[in-house]
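pasting for the record
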Amino acid sequence: MALGLGCSARPGKAQENRTGSWRTFRPEFMHDRCTKCGMCSQVCPEGCIGENDEGFPVPDYDYCKGCGLCVEECPSQAIEMKKEEK
């Protein structure tokens, strides 16, 4: 298996396993601050951030691991990590 530059595992691996079940924190998206730049979906290592009909980012929490990369890279600070409530 060939890996991309800087990758230790193929992106999207969580799509084979529902990794969201062990998440401690989850990203909460605030669409009122979002500029729809798409940076969050580009940096997501699991590829689990899609778009709704209006073009806003929407995560699939079944596969989101809660890594927080989307939060760190969001230029408009439209994503916050919240404690997972189960």
